[in-house]
Design a protein that fits this description.
The protein has about 200 residues and is an alpha+beta fold. It has one domain: Ribosomal Protein S5, domain 2 (2-Layer Sandwich). Helices cover about 35% and strands about 30% of the residues. The protein has four helices and ten strands. It has helices at about 35-50, 65-85, 130-145, 160-180; strands at about 5-10, 15-20, 30, 50-60, 90-100, 100-110, 115-120, 125, 130, 150-155. Strand 1 (about 5-10) and strand 2 (about 15-20) form a beta hairpin. Helix 1 (about 35-50) packs parallel to helix 4 (about 160-180) and helix 2 (about 65-85) runs parallel beside helix 3. It starts with a strand and ends in a 16-residue tail after the last helix.
C-alpha cells in the first residue's frame, strides 16, 4: 500500500506554518506553535488519532488569531492530502469520549464533501491562554479543511477545559477509526466509485 504521509507548508505575510503527517504512525508528536493550550490540544489530537504529527508554526504579524487559524487550516489540509483518493479506508468513524463530568461525541464521514456542525458549549471567555473565540475558530477551521463531513458535539459538562479536551479526543478517536484500512475494502468506499 502507498505511504500515507504528507507535508504542507503555508507561508503568508501573517504566518509561517509547516505540518507533516503520517496517518500510519504511532501517535508521535512534535508541536511548536507558541500557544501553550493549542500545543496541548494538537498533541492530544495526534496521540489519540495515532497519527504522527509535526507542527511548526510561527507568527509573522504577532496576531495570535492568524496563527491559530492558519495552524488549523494547515493540519486539515495535510490530513486531507495524506488520505489521497481515500481508497481502502473504513471511511466512517464515531466516538464518544468523556473527560470527568464532560462528554463529547464525533461522527465522521471521510467523503470529499466538506460539511461540519460544531457545538462546544464553552461558557468562559478564555481557557488557559486561548480565547473562546479562537478556540471555536481553531476547531471550525480544522473541520472545514479536513474536506469531510463531521459532526462534533460537546453533549454536556461543567468545566470548559474538560469540554474542549473531550471534543478534541473524540474527534481524534473517530478520525483514527475512519482513516483505518479496511481489509475487506478493495477500492473506494463509495457506491459512486469515487469520493
Amino acid at each position: 500500500m502507498k505511504s500515507r504521509k504528507s507535508l504542507i507548508k503555508r507561508n503568508t505575510k501573517e504566518t509561517s506554518i509547516t505540518v507533516s503527517v503520517n496517518l500510519d504512525g504511532a501517535g508521535k508528536t512534535d508541536i511548536k506553535t507558541g500557544v501553550n493550550f493549542l500545543d496541548h490540544l494538537i498533541v492530544s489530537f495526534g496521540k489519540h488519532s495515532m497519527m504522527d504529527l509535526k507542527v511548526m508554526a510561527k507568527s509573522n504579524d504577532n496576531i495570535e488569531h492568524h496563527l491559530i487559524e492558519d495552524t488549523a487550516i494547515t493540519i486539515g489540509q495535510a490530513i486531507d492530502k495524506a488520505l489521497d483518493s481515500r481508497k481502502g479506508i473504513t471511511r466512517f468513524g464515531v466516538a464518544a469520549v468523556p473527560m470527568d463530568e464532560s462528554l463529547a461525541s464525533a461522527s465522521i464521514d471521510l467523503v470529499k464533501r466538506p460539511y461540519s456542525k460544531l457545538t462546544l458549549l464553552i461558557k468562559r471567555n478564555k481557557i488557559e491562554d486561548m480565547s473562546k473565540e479562537d478556540l471555536e475558530h481553531f476547531f471550525s477551521s480544522l473541520l472545514q479543511n479536513l474536506n469531510s463531513c463531521i459532526h462534533l458535539t460537546v453533549q454536556y459538562g461543567e468545566n470548559d477545559h474538560h469540554k474542549v479536551e473531550s471534543a478534541i479526543k473524540s474527534l481524534a478517536v473517530a478520525l483514527r477509526n475512519a482513516i483505518s484500512i479496511d481489509s475487506k475494502q478493495k477500492g473506494i468506499p463509495s457506491t459512486k466509485g469515487s469520493m
